[in-house]
UniProtKB/TrEMBL annotation:
One Pfam family cited in the UniProt record for this chain: TPP_enzyme_C
Coiled-coil zones: none
Matches recorded under Gene3D superfamilies: 3.40.50.970, TPP-binding domain
Name the record gives this protein: pyruvate decarboxylase
InterPro entries with a match to the protein in the record: DHS-like_NAD/FAD-binding_dom (IPR029035), PDC/IPDC-like (IPR012110), THDP-binding (IPR029061), Thiamin_PyroP_enz_cen_dom (IPR012000), TPP_enzyme_TPP-bd (IPR011766), TPP_PDC_IPDC (IPR047214)
EC class (word): lyase
CDD domains the UniProt entry points to: TPP_PDC_IPDC (cd02005)
Family: Belongs to the TPP enzyme family.
One function term, GO molecular function aspect: magnesium ion binding
Cofactors that this protein relies on: thiamine diphosphate; a metal cation
Amino acid sequence: MPSAKGLVPEHHPRFIGTYWGAVSTTFCAEIVESADAYLFAGPIFNDYSSVGYSLLLKREKAVIVQPDRVVVGNGPAFGCILMTEFLDALAKRLDRNTTAYDNYRRIFIPDREPPNGQPDEPLRVNILFKHIKELLSGDTAIIAETGDSWFNCQKLRLPEGCGYEFQMQYGSIGWSVGATLGYAQAAKDKRVISCIGDGSFQMTAQDVSTMLRCGQKSIIFLINNGGYTIEVEIHDGPYNVIKNWDYTGLIDAIHNSDGNCWTKKVRTEEELIEAIATATGAKKDCLCFIEIIVHKDDTSKELLEWGSRVSAANSRPPNPQ
């Protein structure tokens, strides 16, 4: 499930993707939801992880394993059973069955890459993430901010050793800036690549100051589309439009010629390619801040679907009192 991305090795030959209901990895939900039985280890079924409580699951076919209890179907529930002990004992009792994976291979069609942009065409978000995918290796880690980066980063296939952090249970906008600081400070053997929306960045931008003081070398992609895009897709209104900043100018001011920092504002695919080449070449030992200018309505199809379903599940008329 989405919050567990990065915990299961995605180079494993049987890995088929992320189960997230209607916004799952292509062909993954169909296999999970059509199975004779399913085992969930440590799930949290809230409105966000269940896409507005729209998962096509049957409780009577589920075994749900929590850290210290197991629930089989609609009951019974067995307490005082540790997840680690249960899974270890279950693995010894199972017979190999490849039916689900065989079905997956029958229906699987590889994803196509988005078409390249035309010269001087405004940059699209799907083009941005096509190039971010090429940056990933065992020496990198991805931080996905709350928002459309949730969905775009979920689609990135992680190479062996690539780190991944993603926080969705509270939908904490601005979380990723501090997470980038902390991850880079702890995992000095990896270069952190962060995908952060402009609204989220405005919440916690000051943490960049500590990144510079600590001499970190992360790459921050600041996606500037002029508002809280994920909130727009749940419930639109003028409160989702934010005051635009000169984000590269802000980082230059925070840098203040004291530290190791490089900034770039990008509007086209050609400029993006040049910026990434610089960030991984001449400026590989710098904190690199790349501001990506995109259209305010440029979102992933997964966010459009997710936002509509969460809105339908959570919307209610105002209290007349």
